[in-house]
C-alpha cells in the first residue's frame, strides 16, 4: 500500500494546522493511501535542536520521509515565515530526502498578509530537498477556520482548494504505482525496454 508522511510543524496537536492534516489523511485513506504522521513537537528536543540524526526518534522520522510516496507539510506562519519547529526538522533531512516525491504544503496564518510566505519561504526549502512536484499549497486564515464545538469549520473556498490539492497528490501517487506495477509485470507481458528519461519514474 502506498503511504504518505504528514508532517506537523505546529506546537499543538489541536491547532488549525493539525486540523488541515486530518482533512488530508481521511480522503487519502479512502483512496487506499496510508498516512504516517510525524509531529515534530513530540520528537526528542535535545536531539532535534542538537542535530542528532542518529537519535532513534529522529532517525525514524527521517527514514519515514525517505521511504514515503508523498509528503504533506502543515505549519502555522509566524512573522511571515513557517514555524521554527519545522525549520529545525527540515534542516536535519538529507539533501535529496524529498527526491521524486510530490509534496503538498499547507499553512495557517492570522490574515492574508502571510499568504506569500508559502511561495517565498517554504517552497524553496522543499525544492532544495529535491521535491519532484510541489503541489499548489493551501493557505487558511483564522477567518477560514472558525473554531466550533472543539473543532474547526472550514470555509467553502478553502475546503474546495484542499480537496483539489489532495486529489492532485493522490493522482500523482496512484500514477506512480501504476507505472511501477507495469514495470514489474512478468516477462510474458510485453513492456517497452526503452530507458526512461525521467529519473523519478523508476
UniProtKB/TrEMBL annotation:
- Asked whether the keyword Flavoprotein is assigned, the reply is yes
Q: Which InterPro entries match?
A: Flavoprotein-like_sf, FMN_Rdtase-like_dom, NAD(P)H-dep_FMN_reductase, NADPH-dep_FMN_reduc_SsuE
A Pfam family (short name) is FMN_red
- Tell me the enzyme class: oxidoreductase
Write out the GO biological process terms. alkanesulfonate catabolic process
Superkingdom of origin:
Bacteria
UniProt keyword annotations, A-Z: Flavoprotein, FMN, Oxidoreductase
Q: Which residues form the NADPH-dependent FMN reductase-like domain?
A: 3-141
Q: State the Gene Ontology terms under molecular function.
A: FMN reductase (NADPH) activity
What EC number(s) does this enzyme carry?
1.5.1.38
- What are the boundaries of the signal sequence? none
Q: Which SUPFAM superfamilies match?
A: Flavoproteins
Similarity annotation: Belongs to the SsuE family.
What is the recorded name of this protein? Answer: NADPH-dependent FMN reductase
Its source organism is Trinickia violacea
Amino acid at each position: 500500500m502506498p503511504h504518505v508522511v504528514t508532517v506537523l510543524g505546529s506546537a499543538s496537536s489541536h491547532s488549525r494546522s493539525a486540523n488541515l492534516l486530518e482533512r488530508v489523511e481521511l480522503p487519502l485513506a479512502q483512496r487506499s493511501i496510508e498516512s504516517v504522521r510525524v509531529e515534530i513537537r513530540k520528537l526528542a528536543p535535545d536531539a532535534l535542536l542538537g542535530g542528532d540524526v542518529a537519535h532513534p526518534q529522529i532517525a525514524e522520522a527521517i527514514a519515514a520521509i525517505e521511504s514515503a510516496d508523498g509528503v504533506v507539510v502543515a505549519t502555522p506562519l509566524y512573522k511571515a515565515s513557517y514555524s521554527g519547529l519545522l525549520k529545525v526538522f527540515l534542516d536535519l533531512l538529507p539533501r535529496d530526502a524529498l527526491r521524486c516525491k510530490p509534496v503538498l504544503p499547507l499553512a495557517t496564518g492570522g490574515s492574508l498578509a502571510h499568504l506569500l510566505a508559502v511561495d517565498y519561504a517554504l517552497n524553496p526549502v522543499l525544492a532544495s530537498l529535491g521535491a519532484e512536484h510541489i503541489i499548489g499549497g493551501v493557505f487558511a486564515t483564522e477567518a477560514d477556520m472558525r473554531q466550533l464545538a472543539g473543532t474547526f469549520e472550514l470555509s467553502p473556498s478553502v475546503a474546495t482548494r484542499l480537496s483539489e490539492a489532495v486529489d492532485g497528490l493522490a493522482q500523482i501517487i496512484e500514477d506512480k504505482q501504476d507505472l511501477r506495477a507495469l514495470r514489474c509485470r512478468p516477462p510474458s507481458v510485453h513492456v517497452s525496454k526503452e530507458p526512461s528519461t525521467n529519473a523519478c519514474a523508476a
